[in-house]
Design brief:
This protein has helices at 2-15, 182-185, 189-192, 218-224, 235-238, and strands at 18-25, 32-37, 58-65, 71-76, 114-118, 127-132, 141-145, 152-154, 240-242, 250-254. Strands 3-1-10-7-8 form a 5-stranded mixed beta sheet, with no helix packed on it. 43% of the residues are buried. It is α+β, with helices and mostly antiparallel strands. The chain has a domain at 18-157 and 225-254: Thaumatin, CATH 2.60.110. The protein has 5 helices and 10 strands. It binds 2-acetamido-2-deoxy-beta-D-glucopyranose. It comes from Marasmius oreades. Keywords: Disulfide bond, Signal. Disulfide bonds join 27-255, 79-90, 95-101, 149-242, 154-225, 162-179, 183-199, 200-210.
């Protein structure tokens, strides 16, 4: 009986383990990382603020529950929260809330490179993770891990060579700090009414009716960053898995 109860205690400890996430700013400038959990999908959240300032070449580490679902981390550029802190406090990636993004409405203003995870506590279901340019690009990024699972990365600065209609926003020196996706940058009557080949919306909301060939400038993003989502249905080349039993720790590096 004694041994059984020890085993039970150990099992319950194992069942509540968490992963260690590290977010490293390897950019030669300050950025403001941000985090969001879609609370409509899951209630487990990381043990860390939803936004922070990261000086160049600094990192933070925090624990993330095994059952973190629909979570995302991105970074904001050129922020100043001194007046009216909110989505427009940064040139891109800003969120409702200011420095710390609102837990319900604090998604980032595009364009922003997104790192996305749905972890799993069920040994039969793997972790899923990806880098996404579906909301555009604002920084190079890499997702790596300590268990030998695939690396997702986009380590090219997509700003300077971004196609003209998508280029920007620009900083005070005129440098492009982002490259919008066609869905956002070429917003038209049809995308706002919900029927857009660039956004895979409306009648284009399936892989069959939204081929990558119908998404303008798809190849600019995909050829430079083949292991990142360049449109909504890029699962085959950009969605990665890691056995949840491996309990991988993940590192997100900006400007890898
Ligand atoms: C932030 O904005 C305030 C108000 O506009 C300004 O006074 C301050 O110089 C800005 N800070 C930086 C670091 O640019």
């Amino acid at each position: 009986m004694k041994l059984f109860s020890v085993a039970t205690v150990l099992a319950s400890i194992a069942a509540t383990t968490a992963r260690t996430f590290t977010v490293f700013n390897a950019c030669p400038f300050t950025i403001w990382p941000a985090m969001f959990t879609d609370l409509n999908v899951g209630s487990a959240v990381p043990n860390f603020a939803n936004g922070w300032q990261a000086a160049s070449f600094t990192s933070v580490s925090f624990s993330v529950p095994d059952n973190w679902r629909a979570g995302r981390i991105w970074a904001r550029r050129d922020c100043n929260f001194s007046q009216n802190p909110g989505p427009n406090s940064c040139l891109d990636g800003g969120c409702n809330g200011g420095l710390v993004c609102d837990s319900r409405t604090g998604t980032g203003v595009p364009p922003a490179t997104l790192a996305e995870w749905t972890l799993s506590a069920d040994p039969n279901i793997p972790d899923n993770y990806d880098l996404s340019l579906v909301d555009g690009y604002n920084l190079p990024a890499r997702i790596s891990n300590n268990k030998g699972c695939p690396v997702a990365q986009c380590n090219v600065d997509l700003g300077p060579n971004c196609p003209a209609p998508l280029k920007g926003p620009f900083d005070s020196t005129g440098f492009p700090v982002g490259c919008k996706s066609a869905c956002v940058g070429l917003a038209s009557f049809f995308s706002w009414t919900g029927d857009s080949a660039n956004c895979c919306s409306g009648s284009h909301n399936t892989p069959q009716t939204c081929p990558s060939s119908g998404v303008q400038f798809y190849s600019y993003f995909k050829s430079n960053c083949p292991t990142a989502y360049a449109y909504a249905f890029d699962d085959a080349t950009a969605l990665f898995t890691c056995p949840s039993s491996a309990k991988a720790d993940y590192t997100l590096t900006f400007c890898p």
